[in-house]
Amino acid sequence: MKSFSIASGKGGVGKTSFVINLSLALSELNQKVVIFDADLGLANVDIMLGISPKFDIRYVLNGTLTLKDIIHPTEYKFSLIPAGAGIYELTQLSASQKLLLRAQMEEALYPFDFLFFDISAGISSNVLFFSQLAEERIVLVTPEPTSMADAYAYIKVLYKQGKIKNYQLVVNMAKDEEEGKKIYQQILYVVEKFLPEVKITLLGILPYDECVKKAIRSQIPYLSLCPDAKISIKIKEIAYKILNQKTQRKEIEFKEFLERFSNL
Ligand SMILES: Nc1ncnc2c1ncn2[C@@H]1O[C@H](COP(=O)(O)OP(=O)(O)O)[C@@H](O)[C@H]1O
Ligand SMILES: [Mg+2]
Fold this sequence. Notes:
Blueprint: E1 2-7, H1 15-28, E2 33-38, H2 45-49, H3 57-61, H4 67-70, E3 72-73, E4 79-81, H5 87-90, H6 95-109, E5 114-119, H7 125-133, E6 136-141, H8 145-162, E7 166-174, H9 177-194, E8 199-207, H10 210-218, H11 222-225, H12 230-245, H13 250-263
Parallel strand pairs: 1-5, 1-6, 2-4, 2-5, 6-7, 7-8
Antiparallel strand pairs: 3-4
InterPro entries: FlhG, MinD_FleN, P-loop_NTPase, ParA/MinD_ATPase, YlxH/NBP35
Binding site for ATP: 10-17
Keywords: ATP-binding, Cell projection, Cilium, Flagellum, Nucleotide-binding
């Protein structure tokens, strides 16, 4: 199971729509995907999908249910771990809660090929927790200077506090490919200058597309609503790229995931 956190620094840049559509694209490539809704203030993967799961991670932490019990299947093949308010407690797990969760992770998560953490804006302890837990980090940025500044701030804090050196950038709401590449070059320039140990690659460029808004209003992923839109083609390209990053080291990946969890 390969795990990714999806962060941005700034809110409202398109993380949740990205995670949902990427998960759908990977599901269509026969991958088993689970989204962990870890956006503390604005947990809204369920709303974007038009579903209302009954249970969330709180039920696991208080011992009522197991992690496997709360994994919610969706009509789009991928699954959802609803976090609800329980997410507050994840950064302050007691030793016994941590052991409980760790013991249940293998059974619950091992069947999946990909795990995506849709995390909050900002640089809270939760954001750092999930960014360090994941094997890979995707940083979403838009062409707005505020978004670029916040993305850089996120990378800087994570590098300084967690020694995390690898990031994959997605430029969202780009006017065209050229603008997307320019944004990447600008961030790369600052990162290379001030954080020379950090490696940041360009995962993809997603255009601004009215279908994203239409899709959110209809509570349907844009990949389903507008399969031929440019953004749908681009998200499928990103899914292929991510699929190509998957190695045949599932056992090791999982062991490393559990180790990181124990050390956080
Ligand atoms: N590629 C895009 N083109 C047009 N609008 C977008 C795009 N991506 C996101 N949006 C808009 O941005 C808003 C925030 O998206 P959302 O996925 O909820 O962001 P976040 O999870 O980062 O807060 C939504 O209202 C959505 O319509
Ligand atoms: Mg969101």
